Amino acid sequence: MKAIPVGFHSPDGDIATLLRVFDEVARVYEQVIAAAQRTNGSAPRLLERELGLARDGGMWLSSMRKYVELEAAIDKDPDIRLISQSSTVNWERVGRALLAGYGDHVWARSSDFNGAKLAYFNVVHDRNGKLATVKAKRRGLFMGGSVIAPSFDRPGPELVVSLSFMYGTQDSRVGMMGLAGVIQPSWATQPTQRTIELASDDEVKLLQPHLTKMNADIAAAVPQDQPASVALAGRIVTMNGPLGKVYALLRMTANNLRLLAELDLEAYDDPKYKKNLADAFRFPKIFDTLKWRWENSRNVRAYFSMI
Hints:
This protein is α+β, with helices and mostly antiparallel strands. It has four domains: 6-88, no CATH class; 90-188, no CATH class; 189-259, K Homology domain, type 1 (Ribosomal Protein S8, Chain: A, domain 1), CATH 3.30.1370.10; 260-307, no CATH class. The protein has helices spanning 14-39, 43-51, 57-74, 78-84, 91-102, 201-207, 211-220, 243-256, 271-281, 288-297; strands spanning 106-109, 120-124, 133-142, 159-167, 174-182, 191-197, 229-233, 236-242. Strand 4 and strand 5 (174-182) form a beta hairpin. Helix 1 (14-39) packs across helix 2 and helix 2 (43-51) crosses helix 3 (57-74). The N and C termini lie far apart (51 Å). The model is unreliable at 125-136 (pLDDT under 50).
C-alpha cells in the first residue's frame, strides 16, 4: 500500500484503493505492453512511470495478465462478460459482498468502548449462519501503510472488514489486519448475540435507568424490520439482533457507563505528602504524560487543578 500514490487512496479503505489502481492498470495495459515491445524496455518500469507507482509494477502486470487469461472463459457468458467489463463505484455492494465472505474478520474501534485508541476488537460470526460471538480480548492493529489506519490525532473508521489477520508472535491475542475496508453497521445483518458482565453493582445502577430508552431507540433505528433488544439480569447484559444493531447497543451501553469522578488529592493528611503535592502543582506539565497515556490507552480524560 505504501507504493500507491495518494491520488489513488480511497476513504473506503485499502480494498477500494486497490480497485482504483487496477482500473487504471486495465486502462493503460495494452499501450504499456506495446511501448515495451517497441522500445525493448521493461513493461513493469513503464507501468510504474505511467501511474506514478513507487514499485510493484510487475505484480500489477501479472494480475492483469491473469485477468486477460480469464477473459476467454468470461466471454462464454454474455451477462458475466458485461459485468466484468464495468467498474462499480458503489462501495456498499463490495462491502456487503466482503461481509458475506469475510464476516469473521469484522473489527470494531476499541476507543468507542473505553479501549486503546489505535486498537480494534474482533467481532466473529459463524459462516454457517449460527449466532455470532464477540471476542473482545482479540485485538487487531492496522498494517503499516493502510490508507485508513488511525493515529493519535485522527480516529479510524468505527467498523472495518479485513481480508486477513496475522497473529503476533509475542501475544496471541494481538495481531495485524491486512487489506481492510470500511463498512457501515447497517450492512452487517447476520444474527448476533452479545453477552457482557458488568464489573460492579455501581455499573448496574448506572445502566438500569437507560434500558427502556435503549430498547426504544434501537427499535426505531433503520431498518425497522430487523428487531434487536437488550436485557439486564443481575450483572449480565444480553443483546440480541443483527450485528449492526447489536454494535449500536454496545455503544449505547458504553456511553451510559461513563461518569465524572472527582478525587480530592488533599484529603490525605500528611505534611510531607502535602508539600510534595504543592511542589508538583507548581509544574502542572508534569502530569501531561499521565494524561496522554490514560486518554489514548484507556479512553479516560483526566484533569488536574488546584483549588
